[in-house]
Amino acid sequence: MASIFGKERDSAIREPDELCVILSLVCQMLVDSIILPGPIAWVVRIGVPAAAILIPAGFFLSVASPRSEYPNGTIRLAYLGALVLALSVLILGVALVHAGVVSMTIRHP
């Protein structure tokens, strides 16, 4: 029997994960649309979905014990996931801007 508080809590936990997965799919399409060197493309391809795993894992595992009142050291996984997400999106953004600038400077006859 689920209460209304349980439903709100579940949707509040699930929505950021879904957003990160959708962002990873969009990033996959954008990486395919531009030419990126192999290692950089893999950093972006793996980074965004990895963040979708690391951020919730950090939150859930930091309070896994029923008696915990404060998060333990595994909360660092959430910070690591946020850092990985930020770096992946930043690399992709710079690459997209660079690809746009290069395509504007090429004159087609």
Short précis:
With 109 residues, this protein is an all-alpha fold.
Helix/sheet category:
mainly alpha
Whole-number mean pLDDT: 83
Distance between the termini: 69 Å
Determine the strand fraction and express it as a percent band: under 5%
Number of domains: 1
Low-confidence stretches: 1-6
Question: Judging from the principal axes of the Cα atoms, what is the shape?
Answer: elongated
Order of helices and strands: HHH
For the report, how would you describe the main beta sheet? none
Q: What proportion of the residues is helical, as a percent range?
A: over 70%
Give the helix tally: 3
Please tell me how large the radius of gyration is: 19 Å
Count the beta strands. Answer: 0
What would you note in describing this structure?
This protein has about 110 residues and is an all-alpha fold. It has one domain (about 15-105). Helices cover about 80% and strands about 0% of the residues. The protein is built from three helices and no strands. It has helices at about 5-35, 40-60, 75-105. α1 runs antiparallel to α2 (about 40-60) and α2 packs antiparallel against α3 (about 75-105). The longest helix is centred in the N-terminal third of the chain and has 30 residues, at about 5-35. It is elongated. The model is unreliable at about 1-5 (pLDDT under 50).
